TetR family transcriptional regulator (Rhodovulum visakhapatnamense), 452 residues
Amino acid sequence: MPQGASRTDSDTCPGGRVCRRHAAGEDPAKRDQILQGAMKEFLEKGFDGASMNEICRAAGVSKGTLYVYFEDKLDLFVALVARERQAIFAGFDALLKGDLPLEDKLTRFGQRLASTICTDHVIQWQRTIAGIVDRMPELGARFYEAAAQRTHDDLNALLRRERAAGRLDVPDPERASAQFIELTVAGIWRARLFGKRRTDPEPDEIEASVASAVQVFMAAYGRTSG
Amino acid sequence: MPQGASRTDSDTCPGGRVCRRHAAGEDPAKRDQILQGAMKEFLEKGFDGASMNEICRAAGVSKGTLYVYFEDKLDLFVALVARERQAIFAGFDALLKGDLPLEDKLTRFGQRLASTICTDHVIQWQRTIAGIVDRMPELGARFYEAAAQRTHDDLNALLRRERAAGRLDVPDPERASAQFIELTVAGIWRARLFGKRRTDPEPDEIEASVASAVQVFMAAYGRTSG
DNA sequence: GCTTTATCGAACCGGTCGGTTCGATTAAAT
DNA sequence: ATTTAATCGAACCGACCGGTTCGATAAAGC
């Protein structure tokens, strides 16, 4: 097994010139490698169930090195959550822009959202986070904000625009956007979270669920029903 | 601190007569006492985070005694989940019977459901269960069945009856009942689960949310819109 | 009274935990 | 070729884990 600093990215030496060796604990590739191993462990065993020794093994990194990159177990976990938090929910806002008809926008947004949050990987994250919310409430809240609340806010803004344009009759856009989000994954997400359903929903199931969600939503809030 | 078998329930002795002393590990009051302490620990720390020593302390029971009543940590946890599972969701079906108008039934059912599953205690249970679903999927599935799925099925049956009576235009009652359930807690439950909101919702918020849910539901599926 | 026995409580088991240390290794920099 | 230092890896720390054992205690049954 190779030792010494791995050379996968360039950096600057004290002399100011480009060099190929990283300072201790500053090789981003090694950092990712550790995070990857940690993710496997944390998602499988939860925060308490995961062991630092196992994380080292899974990451292919010595314990000494790991503790150069991260202060302790909590530090590692927090860094990992922060990374995944934004990786999962990047690019959602773009789906609500453009000048498609409202139904199409909702459908596109709903499909992306529903399929994303019902994925095995994301479901595992949600379980892991939920499991430690009691002892780390701020971490859970931040995860929620980056995920549910951000998409919620984006949708909320769209609904207000549509209302202002007279195409929607929404007394409470805040509530309506929350309702739409829940509708898209009705009957699926919760069953996934609690392990009643153990495989990703098929794309056509997502499509059907979102189509029904759009239909119900428009029936309730559309100005011209149909 | 008193020792010896506590005398809170009657039992039968080998002779067949009523006696006041329980066989080892068969005092239901002591059993409850253990379960109570275990609940506190498991809900606060999760399955892995909870320690058997702490559970003993919290329950006011010696470790030796605890292991007379339960085989091991998992056995205790499973017994506890089984007890709570049915304690939480008892009596929901009754709310859907009688001859009230559909809207009233939905409202009553929705309010009870929403306020129940957003309670601190129930939220903590959901977090704890979700946290170990990966390693104990059957336990999570059974929890889901007793909770979400049972209420879901009850509602489903009601919708089919209403459709048969011509008072509802539901193409897919299965989906519609899931949608209604999600609508009642839209924007609340998820925020509670992830610790974004840390207190029980006020009754009037529940009422407003359920009222909106009924409205949306009836707009989408009611035969006479209004 | 005496016997029975459920419970207590503390010591103990082997194992693993998170975290630390430090000499050996090895590759980059010069 | 030599120096430098990031990483390795194994041993080690004290603490605690889940689980077991067993003599002491005290209440119930006779």
